[in-house]
């Protein structure tokens, strides 16, 4: 089991891939939100899924959204996306998802 020193537990990639496969491919063409993103394991897996169904890297990244309460996790997540795809990940809100539902809705529906 992957954890960090704050006892946060990250979902292993093979389980993430099984979860992602449960949802029809067409659903990945629209916006996808990870509401407790940690350091972005699901975010990377979702972006990979979007790319695998024919979206460009930019389309995949721009239609993936993340919320994470801890600033240092947000920073790691952004760095990981940039290191993997060479594109800045802007769709991240660093806040408490449960206390900011309206803000999160506006963030996803901004276009
Ligand atoms: C157990 S980790 C899981 C991370 C990732 N979803 C995964 O499955 O690998 C939970 C994450 O949710 C964040 N978190 C907990 N409560 C939250 C809240 N109310 N709003 C946003 N993020 C939250 C924690 O900081 C932590 O990074």
Chain-wise SSE layout:
Layout: E1 2-3, E2 9-10, H1 13-21, E3 32-34, H2 41-52, H3 57-62, E4 64-67, H4 71-85, E5 92-93, H5 101-108
Parallel strand pairs: 3-4, 4-5
Antiparallel strand pairs: 1-2
Helix pairs in contact: 1-2
This protein binds S-adenosylmethionine.
Residues 8-11, 36-38, 41-42, 67-70, 73, 96-98 line the site of S-adenosylmethionine.
Description:
There is one protein chain. This protein is 45% helix and 12% strand. The protein is α/β, with parallel strands linked by helices and 111 residues long. It has a single domain (2-97), classed as Vaccinia Virus protein VP39 (Rossmann fold, 3-Layer(aba) Sandwich). A three-stranded parallel beta sheet has the order 3-4-5, sandwiched between helices. The protein has a two-stranded antiparallel sheet with strand order 1-2. Helix 1 (13-21) crosses helix 2. The radius of gyration is 13 Å and the shape is globular. The termini are far apart. The model has no long low-confidence stretch (mean pLDDT 93). Residues 8-11, 36-38, 41-42, 67-70, 73, 96-98 line the site of S-adenosylmethionine. S-adenosylmethionine (SAM) binds next to strand 2 and helix 2.
Q: Poorly predicted ranges (pLDDT <50, ≥5 residues)?
A: none
Order of helices and strands: EEHEHHEHEH
Helix fraction by DSSP (H/I, runs of at least 4): 40-55%
Q: How many domains in all?
A: 1
Strand order of the largest sheet: 3-4-5
Mind describing the biggest β-sheet?
3 strands, parallel
Shape: globular
